[in-house]
Design goal:
The chain is an all-alpha fold and about 80 residues long. It is built from 4 helices and no strands. The chain has one domain: 434 Repressor (Amino-terminal Domain). The protein is globular, with a radius of gyration of 12 Å.
Length: about 80
Amino acid sequence: MPYGPAPTPEPHRVAFGRRVRTLREARGLSQESLAEQADVHRTYISSLERGHRNVGLDNIIALARALGVAPGQLFEDV
């Protein structure tokens, strides 16, 4: 069991998560439906959007496909 407060997420992770959330919401998708389309767990999407995940290349590609964007578009404003 971890002790103390959770570490503050890195700013670039927060910005990436915010971008994913913006794109997801613009498409009217819930976290659950995006997770299903990207073949990841819903809690992964939640923690990613809060900046708590260091997302890997495979998941970047899966998220981009599920959102219907080029992978580079996930990095706008990051």
